[in-house]
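Long-time lurker, first post. I've been practising inverse folding by hand and with some scripts of my own, and I keep getting stuck on stretches where the structure tokens seem ambiguous. Below is the full token string for one chain I'm working on. Before anyone asks, I'm not after the true native sequence, just a reasonable design that respects the backbone. If someone could post their per-position residues I'd love to compare against what I wrote down in my notebook.
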């Protein structure tokens, strides 16, 4: 739990469960002896036959997103490169992030998250993948592999995101165990941005337009301030929002809307 910055206490099984909102981690053998004494007390029991990583993911999901039987949406922010940053949102809330050391590691993690949250889910989970386009050949390979892996999914959205100054925004988020890496931070910034939506029919043509520079940068780029001071103010504001996202204080949707409002307000101010 320390690794994922989740506060916890060790309870003596013979003692009464505190009557406050909490998630009780126990085993299938012990859970039958426990009594729920508060409507916001939930039990997550671990079976010896269960994959332990999957159980930990259940715990993280319940803590950061809320305790429920099924979830409906996964969003992935991806910063491609020699090392790939990956950030995962579940039902609009930050779930987890990784620094992946090769493309296959990245794709495997994405596949595993989708597979896990689709288990026993009666509805197909909605997918959104936001790819940074800074290292275009790597991005194209990842997009192509994504369509190959998930070509049967009906509810999947893929977007290309401009990486302009994404690595310049300093996020100081740090848990007890680790500091967020620059690749993970870049993936978060990309997840906060809008981009160009592509599909299986047009993505090759879109990449060719980018390579030939027929697709103007302005179609991606949103931050278009004229001087260094404007850029710094805007970057600092985004960093604050990113911190709130990582802390679970705001959703991805709300944070994107906040950034749009800040951008519009700043452009109005500097026009005066």
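-- Answer (accepted) --
I ran through it position by position. Result:
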């Amino acid at each position: 739990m320390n690794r994922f910055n989740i506060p916890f206490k060790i309870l003596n099984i013979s003692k009464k469960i505190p009557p406050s909102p909490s998630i009780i981690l126990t085993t299938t053998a012990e859970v039958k002896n426990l009594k729920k004494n508060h409507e916001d007390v939930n039990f997550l029991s671990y079976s010896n036959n269960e994959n332990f990583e999957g159980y930990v993911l259940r715990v993280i999901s319940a803590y950061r997103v809320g305790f429920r039987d099924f979830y409906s949406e996964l969003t992935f922010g991806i910063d491609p490169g020699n090392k790939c940053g990956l950030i995962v949102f579940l039902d609009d809330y930050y779930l987890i992030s990784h620094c992946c050391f090769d493309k296959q590691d990245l794709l495997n993690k994405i596949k595993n998250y989708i597979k896990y949250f689709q288990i026993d889910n009666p509805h197909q989970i909605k997918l959104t993948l936001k790819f940074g386009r800074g290292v275009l050949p790597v991005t194209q390979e990842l997009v192509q592999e994504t369509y190959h892996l998930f070509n049967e999914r009906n509810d999947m959205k893929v977007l290309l995101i401009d990486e302009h100054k994404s690595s310049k925004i300093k996020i100081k988020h740090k848990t007890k165990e680790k500091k967020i890496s620059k690749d993970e931070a870049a993936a978060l910034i990309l997840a906060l941005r809008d981009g160009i939506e592509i599909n299986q029919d047009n993505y090759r043509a879109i990449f060719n337009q980018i390579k030939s520079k027929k697709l103007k940068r302005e179609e991606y780029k949103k931050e278009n301030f004229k001087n260094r001071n404007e850029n710094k103010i805007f970057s600092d504001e985004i960093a604050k929002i990113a911190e709130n996202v990582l802390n679970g204080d705001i959703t991805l949707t709300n944070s994107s809307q906040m950034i749009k409002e800040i951008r519009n307000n700043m452009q109005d101010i500097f026009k005066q």
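A couple of notes from the structure itself: The longest strand covers residues 93-100. Residues 220-227 have pLDDT under 50 and may be disordered. Happy to go over any region you disagree with.
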